[in-house]
Design brief:
The complex is a heterodimer. By secondary structure, chain A is α+β, with helices and mostly antiparallel strands. Chain A is built from 2 helices and 8 strands, in the order ββαβαβββββ. In chain B, the strands form 4 sheets. Chain B has an 8-stranded mixed β-sheet, sandwiched between helices. The chains are: A alpha+beta, B alpha+beta.
Chain lengths: 136, 491
């Protein structure tokens, strides 16, 4: 699993890959953290949550949106993300966890929101890849 | 006819600074780019033109979609985009407003001159940085919980007045007197309110800033007099928006619209353009929620401005009233507003219609005499504030006579970015930029990190002088005065 921050005129994009959807989603989430903060300390406790959505793209959108919400409300940067993605009837579900680094321990920028613009989730021979533009 | 082509998109030159992408395929109207040849080169560099073409697919689009001279690629709708849709038969699109609802700029005047500030810049920039919350998790000036957020969403700057954070004169010099009457706080989600309750009175980060500036040039004496601006005067510029509350509201409604109006969405070229049909329940809800977020952003900038008054009082050991620290004006950059405009292609068939005018990275620019211009400025036109980069000047303009015909009463909102943040960090080193600005241009910058300074370095932005020149020559926003940075704080 890996991610890369890609240039965008006004914003920042994350390109992520993984053998499985779980890893790819978690890698995008780690990309979100990297777009927020350059140096991440090994502190903070883990928290978990579940998100359900009507499709895979919607699930990725809602997952990242939830991380941004948790960030603002808990006052921590979610890092070291782990995720488990599955289909449940006509819905997709992600059970996720992250380590929350307190804001007081980092210097970070505010990633405002996740966008659908140019969003891609594709199956490849090696696994899955995803591309997301973040509003900064 | 002069034509230009970028990535297969052909533009025809209609006249000086006006380029048109003719209607084709599913475009409902043509698209127009207002730019000089040099600005058009930059606009053609990324996906701005494709995003502008996509925007013309929105139902009820009227006359033409327009890209301002500072336009650049965003997501869905381009930054610097203006699109007007029929308020009865068209749609309203959260993506055409943007995530940072009522991200905007306000300028406060002072009676101080540059001589009063010179030599005290370090003290001033340190004190402003220490007293105005910025960055991620910087908190707010007021952190009183959900009840406060509800009152702010509903009453806007009226709330700030009641709580002692504003004076009546502030309201008289703010668009809509600082309160959107259509605000519906119940349409703003709990999630959004949770995010907003700790951020009221904070700059945020990215390109948001607070800058002390001096007026360097006056181009129109009569308008500058009416605005109370003169050379060497110190002014303060505040650029920020509705913070997490607004971002969450846009996100919430994009998703709600996607679920409820998927049929409309499937006919649009970009999911980020999600739109609710005019008259639908969601259109009304989003409009009410967006207006509430507009109120929040106005209060956000009001609180920061009032805190700046207190900082100046301590530094200069005088009351802010004696320094005449009065609001010049507050303009929104990301907004959709119901407005009545004369529309229709044929001069004899033009008629007045109510529209949702979406301005995403664009400024309303109503001319003299328009009834929605505050009484204080009705004779000369609405003030427009166009910030440049940390190393370039900013401008004060006034709404131009041609704006109603060309741009639904709009003009540019800034210099417009040239390069990505990634590239900026490769090309610039924050500390070096900071040192050069101080030593060579006498601009004192303090930011949360060197990376922020690098990402916002002067070389990252387009030439604001050229953007303003085009606006002035087109008559959509007339150049009144130029200002230059003295101190700048960034999140």
């Amino acid at each position: 699993m890996s991610y890369e921050l890609r240039p965008h005129t006004a914003d920042v994009a994350v390109a992520a890959t993984g053998e499985r959807l779980d890893e790819t989603f978690a890698a995008v989430a780690d990309g979100l953290a990297a777009a927020t903060c350059d140096e991440i300390p090994r502190t903070g406790g883990r928290f978990s949550f579940t998100v359900r959505a009507e499709g895979l793209e919607a699930l990725l959108f809602d997952y990242l949106d939830r991380l941004i919400y948790e960030r603002d409300v808990r006052g921590v940067l979610p890092v070291a993300n782990e995720a488990s993605v599955r289909e449940d009837g006509d819905e997709w579900v992600i059970e996720a966890s992250a380590r929350g680094v307190p804001f007081s321990e980092i210097v970070a920028r505010d990633v405002k929101a996740v966008t659908y613009s140019e969003m891609r989730i594709e199956r490849t021979e090696e696994g899955w890849k995803a591309y997301v533009v973040l509003d900064v | 006819m002069t034509t230009r082509e970028f990535d297969g998109i052909r533009l025809e030159r209609v006249r000086e600074h006006v380029w048109e992408i003719p209607r084709e395929g599913d475009m409902r109207v043509p698209a127009r780019v207002l730019a000089s040849e040099s600005l058009l080169e930059r606009i053609g560099d990324d996906k701005t033109l494709q995003q502008l073409k996509n925007a013309t697919h929105l139902p009820g689009m009227t006359d033409h979609a327009v890209c301002m001279p500072d336009g650049h690629q965003g997501y869905g709708f381009p930054v610097g985009g203006v699109g007007a849709t029929d308020a009865e038969h068209g749609c309203i699109s959260p993506g055409a407003v943007g995530y940072d609802i009522n991200c905007g700029v306000r300028m406060m005047k002072t009676r101080l001159t540059y001589d009063d500030v010179r030599g005290r810049e370090e003290e001033l920039v340190e004190s402003l940085f220490a007293n105005v919350p910025s960055g991620l998790g910087g908190g707010g000036i007021v952190e009183n919980g959900i009840d406060t957020v509800e009152a702010v969403l509903s009453r806007g700057v009226d709330w700030a007045l009641e709580e002692g954070w504003a004076v009546p004169d502030d309201l008289e010099h703010c668009e809509d007197e600082g309160r959107r009457p259509d605000a519906d706080p119940s349409a703003v989600s709990q999630k959004a309110k949770d995010r907003g309750k700790n951020q009221l009175g904070s700059l945020g980060s990215g390109n948001h800033f607070l800058e002390v500036q001096r007026v360097t040039d006056v181009y129109r004496d009569d308008v500058a007099d009416a605005y109370g601006l003169e050379p060497e005067q110190i002014v303060v510029l505040i650029h920020c928006g509705s913070r997490g509350l607004g971002h969450q509201t846009c996100t919430d409604y994009l998703r709600k619209i996607e679920k409820r109006h998927g049929d409309l969405l499937s006919r649009l070229p970009d999911k980020e353009l999600a739109a609710a049909p005019a008259g639908s329940e969601l259109a009304e809800e989003y409009y009410g929620a967006m207006c509430a977020c507009i109120n929040f952003a106005w209060v956000n900038r009001q609180l920061i401005m009032h805190r700046v008054r207190q900082v100046f009082e301590r530094i200069f050991d005088r009351s802010w009233e004696s320094m005449e620290m009065h609001l010049l004006y507050d303009v929104a950059h990301n907004i959709a507003k119901k407005e009545v405009h004369e529309v229709g292609g044929d001069p004899q068939d033009r008629e007045e219609r109510e529209l949702y005018v979406h301005r995403k990275g664009a400024t309303r620019a109503f001319p003299a005499g328009h009834p929605e211009v505050p009484a204080a400025y009705r004779d000369v036109g609405q003030p427009i504030i166009i910030p440049g980069s940390m190393g370039a000047g900013s401008y004060v303009l006034r709404g131009g006579a041609a704006s109603m015909d060309l741009t639904f009463g709009s003009t540019a909102h800034g210099a417009g970015r040239l390069m990505s943040r990634t590239q900026a960090k490769q090309e610039f080193w924050g500390e070096t930029v900071q040192d050069e600005l101080r030593d060579q241009q006498h601009v004192y910058v303090k930011a949360q990190s060197g990376a922020t300074v690098a990402e916002e370095a002067p070389g990252v932005y387009k030439d604001v002088d050229e953007v303003v020149r085009v606006s002035d020559e087109l008559g959509i926003g007339d150049k009144v005065a130029r200002t230059y940075p003295v101190c700048n704080i960034k999140g």
